[in-house]
Specification:
CATH topology of the largest domain: Beta-Lactamase
Strand content: 15-25%
Largest sheet: 6 strands, antiparallel
CATH architecture of the largest domain: 2-Layer Sandwich
CATH class of the largest domain: Alpha Beta
Shape: rod-shaped
Helix content: 40-55%
Number of strands: 16
Mean pLDDT: 79
Low-confidence stretches: 1-17
Number of domains: 4
């Protein structure tokens, strides 16, 4: 017996004689079926076998899966959300198995991503700086500060109220059946109350509205307004999403809330349905809830910060000028203090600053340099410096020398010097009277241990008279009929000059004035008038020589006598001595 499994019924053949007609009928039937269905019998048998076995082959799924994924992704994001846990586990397993696989895969995008992140951070920093300048230096910011002072609010609150369009401050995820808080997130710098208490109150308000008003089935409370805040509520089958919003949010934001509650139901459907009070699994909902923390500010008008940058530039320039002046003043002050400290006879013990003024205290020898002189040298303002020096006697050699000169009053021909051992050395020439007095009183000078006079010579009136006699004895001879000296008498003129110098110095100490008369002479040759002129010219010639060597012109006067006072008239040689210049010294007591 044979069966047709393709047409749903069977035919029995009791004998062989009927086999050929039956085969003919079968072939005709297959041909008719092929014409009607357009399918070959072999393929039709395969379809029937596939339906009867109902076994899905991996090869079949591999052919339709890519297209199915593409089509589903175009409809919504549920497929992506559903695949997140699987992909996360796959990535985690891959990293544990071989870290290089993932790192090599993301290496080409890591550099550009990092650069984009840095560029975004810099852009945000610049925007933040712009807002800081606008809120800190603009005229509007001063108005807001005034408003904050008048209303008692903080400046930040006033800025927020004046610049904020809307901000989602808090988001609550609440279990619909029990009213328990599953998760709660808060925007930064927002003060919050107890989130569990807020969740319970929202649930109570919803129940109150349902019970107290005739609401149709399916109607829900979607919005609550109080003051500056608004609560938006979006319900799902097993959870409720509530957001607290400050300002006027656009309707587009509600779509964000709806999308978030849908994703949470898709991702946490099991946890929500089997919720028994354990909220820890819902910590994973934070990324979804954070997507609802939107904020938008008013777009400010493009502000020209030229004046602000100019002001900042002027402030920085002023600070630079002030700093440079301050450094210059400090350097000048340091040099002044250093110079003052290095002065002999001045000892600084303390420098302090009081009420913007410097006070310098220490000790100062009366003979030391004047402090004001050094202050003026460095151009230090006298109004900013006060000094307080106690007097004391410095034992430095130069101050001992000054005190010795003040007490002993040596003549100008004497120089005094005290060495480091305290020995007073007198050098030069002085009268006997001064020398004898010095021998008596040098012991009373502080710091002097010995008086040394080996380099000191004694002078008196007899010595100046000796110089006078030597000068008057000299006769300077001239050539015949000329004002030129004879060669042999030039040393004589030099001796006269030297004696005049010594006598002038001694005369000052003896309080005398010296007047030197220079007298010109000629012999008898020539006319009297000519001889008078020649003798006067010779006297002037000698006077000019003394003045050129540094002697004062006031101490000289000239006279020409011609041939009126000859020295001799006997021989020719004696007559030549009449061509001369002689000297007369007059000492006048003051």
């Amino acid at each position: 017996m044979s069966k047709f499994s393709t047409n749903g019924f069977s035919t029995e053949s009791p004998n062989v004689e009927n086999q050929e007609p039956q085969e003919s009928i079968k072939d005709e039937f297959n041909e008719l079926r092929t014409l009607l269905l357009g399918v070959e019998p072999k393929k039709l048998n395969q379809v029937c076998e596939y339906i009867e076995t109902q076994k899905i082959k991996p090869e079949d799924i591999s052919r339709i899966l890519p297209e199915a994924v593409i089509l589903r992704s175009l409809q919504d994001k549920q497929l992506a959300e559903a695949m997140v846990p699987t992909i996360e586990q796959a990535v985690e397993a891959s990293v544990k198995k071989d870290l290089n696989v993932l790192s090599n895969a993301i290496f080409p995008i890591l550099g550009p991503s990092t650069r984009r992140a840095i560029a975004t951070a810099l852009e945000e920093m610049i925007q933040s700086l712009d807002r800081t300048l606008e809120h800190g230096l603009s005229i509007q910011s001063f108005k807001w500060r005034l408003e904050a002072r008048q209303t008692g609010k903080s400046f930040a609150e006033v800025v927020l109220l004046r610049t904020l369009l809307y901000r989602v401050e808090q988001v609550f995820l609440i279990h619909k059946k029990t009213g328990l808080l599953l998760q709660h997130i808060v925007a930064s710098q927002v003060a919050v109350q107890d989130p569990d208490l807020v969740s319970a109150m929202l649930t109570a308000i919803q129940d109150f509205v349902k019970d107290s008003f005739n609401v149709e089935k399916g109607d829900r409370l979607h919005t609550l307004n109080f003051g500056e805040l608004t609560i938006w509520i979006e319900e799902g089958p097993t959870a409720v999403l509530a957001g607290i919003i400050r300002g006027n949010a656009p309707n587009e934001l509600r779509l964000v809330f709806q999308d978030t509650i849908e994703k949470i139901h898709l991702r946490f459907d099991n946890e929500l349905y089997n919720f028994q009070g354990e909220t820890e699994p819902f910590n994973l909902t934070q990324p979804y809830l954070e997507n609802c923390l939107k904020v938008r500010y008013k777009v400010p008008k493009k502000t020209n910060y030229t004046y602000a940058y100019t002001l900042i530039g002027l402030i920085i320039f002023g600070l630079c000028i002030w700093g440079s002046l301050r450094i210059s003043e400090q350097q000048k002050w340091d040099k002044f203090v250093q110079k003052l400290s290095s002065q002999p006879g001045i000892t600084i013990t303390k420098i302090q600053q009081e009420n913007g003024k410097y006070l310098i205290t220490g000790m100062r020898d009366p003979l030391a340099v004047d402090v004001d002189k050094i202050r003026q040298e460095y151009n230090i303002n006298s109004q900013k410096v006060n000094t307080k020096f106690e007097p004391y006697l410095s034992l430095q050699p130069e101050f001992i020398t000054k005190r010795a000169e003040a007490l002993l009053q040596p003549p100008k021909t004497v120089s005094l010097k005290v060495n480091n051992e305290g020995i007073l050395d007198a050098t030069g020439s002085a009268p006997e009277k001064w020398i004898s007095e010095t021998r008596k009183i040098w012991r009373f000078l502080p710091g002097i241990t010995q008086f040394e006079e080996k380099n000191l010579s004694n002078i008196d009136v007899s010595q100046i008279e000796k110089y006078q006699q030597e000068i008057e004895r000299e006769k300077i001879l001239f050539q015949e009929g000329k004002t030129d000296l004879i060669a042999n008498d030039i040393p004589k003129l030099e001796r006269v000059f030297t004696n005049l110098q010594k006598m002038a110095v001694m005369a000052k100490y003896l309080n005398q004035n010296i007047k030197i008369q220079i007298i010109g002479h000629t012999n008898a040759t020539g006319s009297e008038q000519y001889n008078m002129q020649l003798s006067a010219a010779r006297a002037e010639q000698i006077k000019s020589y003394f003045i050129s060597r540094g002697l004062s012109a006031e101490n000289f006067y000239t006279q020409g006598l011609g041939s009126n006072q000859p020295l001799t008239s006997s021989t020719t040689e004696d007559i030549d001595t009449n061509r001369r210049v002689s000297f007369k010294v007059n000492r006048i007591n003051n």
